[in-house]
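Record type: ASSEMBLY
Status: queued
Input:
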Amino acid sequence: MTSRTPAVALGTWAWGDSGEVGDGYFGSRLTASGLREVVEKAQSNGFTLWDTAVVYGMGHSEEVLAQALKGFSRTEYQLSTKFTPQLAGDGDDPVADMLEQSLDRLGTDYLDLYWIHNPADVARWTPLLIPLLRRGRIKHVGVSNHTMEEIALADRILGEAGFRVEAVQNHYSLLYRSSERAGILEHCRAHDVRFFSYMVLEQGALTGRYSPAHPLPEGSGRAAVYNGILPRLQALIERMGAIGADRGAPAADVATAWAIAKGTTPIIGVTKAAHIDGLVRARGIELADEEIAELETLADVADVDTRGSWEHDM
Ligand SMILES: NC(=O)c1ccc[n+]([C@@H]2O[C@H](COP(=O)([O-])OP(=O)(O)OC[C@H]3O[C@@H](n4cnc5c(N)ncnc54)[C@H](OP(=O)(O)O)[C@@H]3O)[C@@H](O)[C@H]2O)c1
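Status: finished
Output:
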């Protein structure tokens, strides 16, 4: 990764949904023109790193993202997508095969950042990244949802060929700080590995937009996960809102600013052009140490477990 990597990356899991309200994991109404607006505003504000995955709508997110980026030069944005072991085909090289399909959907001949999505079999899949790095099909590699030991194993395998794990992508939010407790954040800091934090906004639950009176979209996957715990998040969200109010920013921006203050690069799942204004504000917010400590205490008091069904213990 380079020093040019933006302070915040953009996530497009929700873009893999059909776009109909209540349909899909996120259940937000998303249109091609709305997402084009998101892209234009993001690009013009320096948010140029786009994270996707095959599994987000089984290729749909990659296709929708490529469409929304049309007209921008390939050097103006960076693409990040993932090899998901559970979707591996039975060809000779399932990693190369999945990558080629992603490149095709994304309309490009290289990726800036390619991830092994989870540690299903580190020793089996990691070596298959090496020829792709050598051929320049992928510029940098990262591992996602890996423990400290799994990161070290992947790094050893790549190291034998002169490459290394350059980035880690794990769930990290005020409510879910397992990577910090496991020493992964510290490891990344010490070894110049960029830590990308995902679900910083807990899929909307930490934005202040949703509450027991205004829950997440009925029928969506995220509603099933979060609506039941919204009452326990209110004290934290109110404090985030108060801290933000002093800076003209809503709670969501404080969550993002917190993740930046912790030395991570948040991947924010933007769905509306106005969310980019939030990222511009968050980029400029400096939280005091006491504010960070206070937010983390309130998050601990909420005592909720937001670990994703796909995650294991760090
Ligand atoms: N490697 C992995 O296993 C993994 C797992 C999960 C996610 N990820 C990556 O991380 C990204 C982020 O995670 P996520 O999309 O699941 O959840 P998230 O970023 O925590 O939350 C996204 C939701 O928050 C709302 N939102 C986004 N930006 C906002 C802003 N500035 N202000 C107010 N509300 C805002 C939107 O909800 P509304 O549409 O309701 O407004 C959006 O759907 C994903 O898109 C994906 O790229 C990776």
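Annotation: The radius of gyration is 19 Å.
Annotation: The first strand starts at residue 9 and ends at 11.
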